[in-house]
Amino acid sequence: MDLKTATAIRRLRLVSAPEAISFLLLLVCSVLKRTTDFNAVPVMGMVHGVLFILYVIFWADAWNRTKWSLKTAALYFVLSVLPAGGFFAERKLRREAENAVIASRARQEGVVNA
User: Where does the source fall among the domains of life (predicted)?
Assistant: First the structure.
């Protein structure tokens, strides 16, 4: 994995957890808006919207650089629209990046899979 691909995955990973948190907070704010006088939906909506747009941009960049299959790319996109899905995406992306680093080091050391 080259540096630009690793960076694309890292950016997507770093924005996935905050996007999930903002989604959950937006849901809480929506419930509070309907049950109390507290209305933070406009602010949380904007914060979540910005984070979601960043997630989609970083997702598209990572898909382009990693050459994921359509199934894998669709999975990461679906995780972005599910409450708490960003947490699962972050964990999966972290494992993918760690595996790529291990494979890269093995190639550098000349270790061949038997």
Answer: Bacteria
Angstrom distance (rounded) from CA 113 to CA 97: 19
Q: How many structural domains are present in the chain?
A: 1
Nearest of 73, 69, 76 to residue 90 by alpha carbon: 76
d(CA 12, CA 5): 11
33 is a domain residue:
yes
What pTM, to 2 d.p., does this model score?
0.84
The three-point CA angle 24-30-35 to 5° equals 130
Position 51, amino acid = L
What's the pLDDT tens digit per position in 38-95? 999 999 999 999 999 999 999 999 999 999 999 999 999 999 999 899 999 999 999 9
Total number of residues shown for the chain: 114
30 Cβ contact list (under 8 Å, min separation 6): 41
> Which structural domain, as residue segments, surrounds residue 82?
3-109
